[in-house]
Specification:
aromatic amino acid biosynthesis; seven-stranded parallel β-sheet; 330 residues; alpha/beta; Endonuclease - Pi-scei, Chain A, domain 1; six-stranded antiparallel β-barrel; 3-dehydroquinate synthase activity; 21 strands; oxidoreductase activity
Amino acid sequence: MPDIYFKSVPFSKEDVTLALESGVDGIITEAEHVEGVRSLALCDVRAEADMPSVGLGSKAEEESIASRIAGGERLVLAQGWEIIPVENLLAQPAVAGKLAVEVASLDEARLAAGVLECGVPVVVVLPEALASLKNIVSELKLSQGTLTLDKATITEVKTVGLGHRVCVDTLTLMERGQGMLVGNSSAFTFLTHAETEHNEYVAARPFRINAGGVHAYAVMPGDKTCYVGELRSGDEVLIVDKDGRTSLATIGRIKTEVRPMLMITAQMETPEGTRTGSVFLQNAETIRLVRPDGTPVSVVALRPGDEVICRADVAGRHFGMRIQENIREI
């Protein structure tokens, strides 16, 4: 995930205000405006002279830029940079984590974020891209790519008594079709829907995902997992929609309470054969999984033969990190 700076040169207070509201990590502007911008929000503010733009049009300039960045200078490749020289710079360890490039559109920002798959670590958005800035920040900072999801068939729904369940309240208002991937095994997780739906007894709470038992795995950003019971305020969680598109949300509050629970079991056909997985969720009408068409379905309405969206993965995690090990979770 790159750091995103907005370059306000010449200075515009209106542009800077919009950039800060959009969630940029920093502002570059003329030296005389640095302190004023610092008073507006807590972020990195740099004078243009401290992060100067430099052209990259030849091998000699590429080598000079690499040497200067390795020597501690913070340089920004001026708009018009090309992929191959940027790849050459990113391939050098002394440069890779410090390279910055200017972009003037969402397409250029996407290009910068995808160079050598890892992307450029710093993207500097020019004023001509101001209208696209919110989309640039959202896509580069929040989007986590796409996961492969598939349909699974419910085989059993049974009551299992009381248990501690966790509500994950986020700083994000989610939409229909969005939720978190949760399951008893990291190898088989269920798309557990946010509380976006109204009914006559309970108001919608689209910031909340009732994520199930404290022991369950939640699929997290960066190809990691975490026990639901270990999530805390300020953590970032992975939000997934019905098509597998992912984004980040920050946890505002965790609520752990004793509630009646259901054990839901399902099967999925994969290239390796039939997979079985399960999840414990609260026995309440407001708790929902997701049908293959993206509509939420209450857990109390599930019956054997119903289809829901799940994710199959390879078992094997140590402190949330993927490992190669022969593990069987049942």
